[in-house]
User: Fold this.
Amino acid sequence: MSATCTTCPYCGVGCGVLATPDGQGGAEIAGDPAHPANLGRLCSKGSALGETISLEGRLLAPEIDGAPSDWDTATALIARKFRAAIDQYGPDSVAVYGSGQLLTEDYYVANKFMKGYVGTANIDTNSRLCMASSVAGHKRAFGADTVPGTYEDLEEADLIVLTGSNLAWCHPVLYQRIAAAKEARPEMRVVNIDPRVTATCDLADLHLPLAPGSDVALFNGLLLHLAEMGAVDQEYTGAHVTGLEASLDAASTDASRVAEITALDPALIARFYALFARTEKVVTVYSQGVNQSTSGTDKVNAILNCHLATGRIGRPGMGPFSVTGQPNAMGGREVGGLANMLACHLELDNARHRDALQTFWNAPAMAERPGLKAVDLFRACADGRIKALWILSTNPAVSMPEADAVRDAIATCPFVVVSDLFADTDTARLADVVLPSAGWGEKSGTVTNSDRTISRQRPFLPIPGQARPDWRQICDVASAMGWGEAFRFASPAEIFREHAGLSAIAGRLDRDFDISGLAQISDAEYDALQPTRWPITAQRMGGRFFAEGGFFTPDAKARALPVSHRPLAAAVSPEAPLRLNTGRVRDHWHTMTRTARAPRLSKHIAEPYAEIHPADAASRGIEPADLVRIESAHGQATLRALITPRTAQETVFVPMHWTALWSSE
Ligand code: SF4
Assistant:
């Protein structure tokens, strides 16, 4: 049997995968040498994909109140409940919570359904937790949510700054690409900024173990240093950037206290600043350590400021680079998957954009104001404002912050639908209706990776039982609510064409996301679509943004943003003497609903643990491998103590993957 070219469903690297069914329900998996993201490489998670696709535990038919049902009954019930809530309490009484696991086509119809037909922007996604700070930072600086660079920049750079990013474990194939580039060019330098010593430090020439939450001060200090050393590109900033003077003013207070705020050795700071100042080709890679923060957006802008000031953006080997956590976080952003965005990077608060979208969709009830964002959305479930909630392809009962409260909120909501592969997830157990979705290997559509490359996810297994793709579930409910004309899509290719057609309008409205070159694509061409980086228009294919300015602001100039360090909301105190830091392990993914099914992926790290500094362990009488209990205002967990100087004193690191399903405490 020949291999199917598809993409890995885990991280935002977006590796190409060759999958060959083994006839037993599994598949042989190999890296796709022709895919530009990985060129044949795969990490441990990607390699084990074939072991995660068995039908064991799969939900094969809709369930209502825990009993098997059928699609007609379930669809009619959902439509009736949503309609009743809208009629009685208004469109803002219903909500959808999606995921960066959804394919772009699923995401597109979900947004069209909510923002154009229900008439509310109460649709948000777990990408809110992962990427919303980058989206906001990009929009503030560039006027659009644009990732300027490409993966090739990581290989062409002379200096790579990794901040808030354990690339070795969280984006392993990008780490491998950088490692290979460094081996070929040993003069390449890598700086790793992370409170912990992680596996990524193996590649680093310099590790800056900064205090949690102090990134803005570090980059503000860098901005001032760049100005003092004459590294500001006067020509570029004069032509293409505003706000630099104000940003330097704002940075100056932090700059005088960088060592104090970051708790870093001044000599380390000086080495980092000097390296950055003298290296033209520099890429700053950042991910969740920057984004997932109460000051995440300011951290993003502090980084962007340094690249704008030096004009090191949009040219080979240069630029800020946000790498996404999930396989289709970028696709979700493109279709307006967040509660404050519209499809094709159109702006929800721009009347021209709303009107253009309403006309294109022939939409009866266009959302006019931002909806509830993830955290607020579940709070609104708890306080009774949300009467009907549909959760697609994610497990918020354990993956949201304040998970215990979110679980209670979902349990409180009068009507909850969950679309998933399994009925036994922590969230699905709380649902009134559970819908069986098609899984990886069965569904068809597109995803966009961190460097704007759109790739096909292709099916190579039959969809089991009565399972259905998410896009079809949404279209069927929309039809049952009376909007069949607008949701009469026969295939993901039809949805893709509509999305690409809309992007032409967005392009004419000066938006960056324009894939109008694919608007007339045939079904056969869609099936055969090769990985393609956007923009894709008659005038332009892929490439980088902003080397010559051309920002998506009214004056086409970027905005350097004045930002200042803000202390973390909760100080370490006698009552709460340790600060908790979380992250991923190498071989598991999110809440392990898939990776726990491959035994070899649990060989690397078999159980949840807490990294504790030897001094903190000694003062509490904790011995290696003791079970320890960690408590905060938000919950508690029992974990195996891992005593190591890799974590700083007064901090504890706990991986995020294990839930009550896999580890009861
Ligand atoms: Fe999948 Fe990411 Fe690993 Fe690539 S690096 S194989 S996309 S998990």
Notes: The two ends are 45 Å apart (CA to CA). The longest strand covers residues 635-643. Residues 319 and 601 are 34 Å apart (CA to CA). The chain has a mean pLDDT of 95.
